[in-house]
Amino acid sequence: MTQPAGPGKAAVIARAGLQQLLDALGAAGYEVLGPAVRDGAIVYDRIAKVDELPAGWTDRQDAGRYRLERRGDQALFGFVVGPQSWKRFLHPPVETLWSTRQEGERMEVTAPQPDATRYAFVGVRACEIRAIAIQDQVFCGGPFPDVGYAARRHNAFIVAVNCGEAGGTCFCVSMGSGPQATAGFDLALTELLDDAGHRFLVEAGSAAGTAMLQGIDRRAATDADLAAARAAVARAAGQMGRTMDTDGIRELLQRNAEHPRWDQVAERCLSCGNCTMVCPTCFCTTVEDHSDLAGTSAERVRKWDSCFTLEHSYLHGGSVRQSTRSRYRQWITHKLSSWFDQFGSSGCVGCGRCITWCPVGIDITEEAAALRTAAAAPNRGQDGTP
Amino acid sequence: MAGRARPRLAVWKFASCDGCQLSILDCEDELLALAEAVHIANFPEASSAVEEGPYDISLVEGSIITAHDAERIVKVRQQSRLLVTIGACATAGGIQALRNFGDIGEMVAAVYASPQYISTLATSTPIAAHVAVDFELRGCPVDKAQLLEVISALLAGRKPAIAAHSVCIECKRRGITCVMVQGTPCLGPVTHAGCGAICPSFRRGCYGCFGPMETPNTAALAGQWRRLGAAPREVQRAFRTFNAAAEPFLRQSQAHDDQDDPG
Fold first, then answer.
1. Nearest Cβ partner for A304 among B149, B173, B214
2. For residue B225, which residues of chain A lie inside 8 Å, CB to CB?
3. What is the complex's ipTM, to 2 decimals?
4. Are the beta carbons of A157 and A30 closer than 8 angstroms?
5. Is the Cβ pair B165, A67 closer than 8 Å?
6. Which residues have CB under 8 Å from B242's CB, separation 6+?
7. Domain edge (last residue) among A237, A267, A296
8. What is the pLDDT of residue B62?
9. Residue in B closest to A268 by C-alpha
10. How many domains are there within chain A?
């Protein structure tokens, strides 16, 4: 786990080398996105200069709580994950699927051009790489790949950053998805800030990554650099703010469909959908048809949706999941259990976003644990909702 | 629409500020298209040329606050094939439903020099409390894009694409960082989408202009407001604005009736 991954030897670059990397990505035609401070949070935005990174900032996170704080150093990646994930670029929140226009007797249908945007994501955490791999399976793993997602994903260049510290709602160690990126990146950085100076251990994980490094000032990593990088990742692994006991979790959820805990969490749950919006693996969408006033043009638009809305489970005659209890149960059961049946893995990567960004601080690790500790009291028949 | 008479549109005003009707006139770029798609037969706010009914679509703004209103809305319904209420007044009683919480006689005496001339009901009630309504469009005021969507949908005979979920979903789609998790009380989680999360986009909490969302857990949200430091009176005031008489907001404001501010 703490062994450096990827082919090729590890190198070390300085802050100036990181700027060269941003320049090289921009020169290669990538739209470079990375962490930046906006509205009191660290979000992903266009970046061109190292100066735009959140130098000296960190995030304090707990259930339903997020605050930025100053660090005692000038670390560029001294925080964990913010309210957004890379999902918003690979799987955009709103996308027009097609539009149509009546021209005399003819009806013309226009499908948007395949998205040719080439994104370079800088600062992708290990949990997010796992989340992208999960969405790859969702969107491209079946017989009908999502064309737009597949194109954006194929073109993307991923610069991972291994975590040197963990956040208050992090539990990637429990989910086996971090804090070190072991695959699924073009380049992986580990930020080192010690007596030997501010530098980044860089490892290539693909031929594209190796090629991108060619024009960048670097030196071979020493044993001391490698040891410092291992120590940084080990420090993060030891700081997880949350843990999730995943032993038999798939069966735990299946077995407890009538657990009294569902009623308790439904008392707190706002069914607002925030958890699903911030989750880097949640992929559900709704489709809206719009026509204009003249009735001569129309479009079909796909938007992020949530299993917490009534419309999401609407079938002929009404919504299947009327109660908040049934909707929260659906979400967590899918995420931690039936995701295995559907996609062959857990749907949770332990990033902690659903905990932090729940306005009332409902904690997925606490809810899963409660199913283990409290006695299961079957109440089937007393609850009128499915 | 060629070869067919254009559907006849009427716009009605009850107790309201006219802001929702102005949203129609505010559709500047689409106004000509609207006037081509429908025949605007009765819209006194825009034109003194008023034609008699029946009408294919009636847009109704405002709430029922007088006996005369209550009679008039029945007549509007009788002349209208489809009746759509627009705005918080028409769908929830509006800000004037604050009268429902007090003594109307005392209020009239406090406001008017000659209260004997005032003939009014004790409550402000939504249109749907009096006649059947085909569609309720939320907002204080309504969003003009949503208004055009409803009219376009009715003309095409399709269901309007108007989501009833929380403001949070449109807030997150826009990529806005949650103000509530950063410490600012916000009504977004219990409020009906439609405005596009205007206030959070300016780092303010949602004021609930669009009224309750489809499954609002106002008690849980009020509890979190208290944990963020809001006094019971502040919670009550938040739920008692433009949609004070909407049932989930009404219940939550009443739940904070007898609680004194701490300290």
1. B173
2. none
3. 0.94
4. yes
5. no
6. B88, B92, B94, B95, B140, B207, B208, B209, B211
7. A237
8. 98
9. B220
10. 2
Q: Which domain holds residue A267?
A: 249-373
Q: Give residues 42 to 71 of A whose Cβ lies within 8 Å of B.
A: 43, 64-67
- Tell me the C-alpha distance between B233 and B252, whole Å: 11
Tens of pLDDT, residue by residue over A352-372, are 999 999 999 999 999 999 999
Q: How far is A142 from chain B (nearest CA, A)?
A: 26
| Fold classification of B8-156 (topology level) | Rossmann fold (3.40.50)
How high is the mean pLDDT in each 10-residue block of chain B (263 residues)?
A: 77 97 92 95 93 97 98 98 98 97 95 95 98 98 97 95 98 98 98 98 98 98 98 97 97 84 45
B53: closest CA of chain A, how far (Å):
22
* Ramachandran assignment for A154, one of left (phi > 0), alpha (psi -120 to 50 degrees), beta (any other): alpha
Residues A254 and A133 in one domain: no
Question: What Cα–Cα distance (Å) separates residue B84 from each residue in A44, A256, A299, B89, B170?
Answer: 41, 45, 24, 13, 24
Residue of A375 and A108 predicted with greater confidence:
A108
The answer to whether the CB atoms of B152 and A292 lie below 8 A apart is: yes
pLDDT tens-digit readout, A33-47: 999 999 999 999 999
Q: Does A316 touch chain B (CB under 8 A)?
A: no
Say if strands A65-70 and A57-62 run parallel, antiparallel, or are unpaired.
Answer: antiparallel
